[in-house]
């Protein structure tokens, strides 16, 4: 049981528990001194680790790394049009409108 409590406390400190389990664990900590002790232990352990790690890079660093490895993405004008999210629905709408006009306006 103690190993389960140790793992549960570690997951709680890391913030990886589902919200319902996190809430249940918080309720348990109100009355369970061992659970609180494990949480304190993991917070202290993770604090030591986080001080030893370099700060996380700013978000645009990954883009610059990808660009250095793979090159800057270059799209020609027609590629940007084809990749636009409204391109295919727009074409479908134009075809449907043309078909509807043909059916309604051209006598048989």
From TrEMBL:
Record-annotated membrane-spanning stretches: 81-105
Keyword field: Membrane, Transmembrane, Transmembrane helix
Entry keyword annotation includes Transmembrane helix: yes
InterPro entries from the UniProt entry: Anti_sigma_zinc_sf
Protein name: Anti-sigma factor
């Amino acid at each position: 049981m103690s190993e389960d409590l140790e793992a549960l406390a570690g997951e709680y400190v890391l913030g990886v528990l589902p919200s319902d389990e996190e809430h249940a664990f918080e309720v348990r900590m109100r009355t369970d001194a061992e659970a609180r002790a494990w949480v304190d232990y993991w917070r202290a352990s993770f604090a030591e680790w986080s001080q030893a790690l370099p700060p996380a890079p700013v978000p645009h660093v990954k883009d610059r790394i990808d660009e250095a490895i793979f090159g800057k993405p270059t799209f020609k004008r027609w590629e940007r049009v084809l990749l636009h999210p409204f391109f295919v629905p727009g074409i479908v709408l134009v075809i449907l409108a043309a078909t509807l006009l043909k059916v309604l306006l051209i006598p048989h």
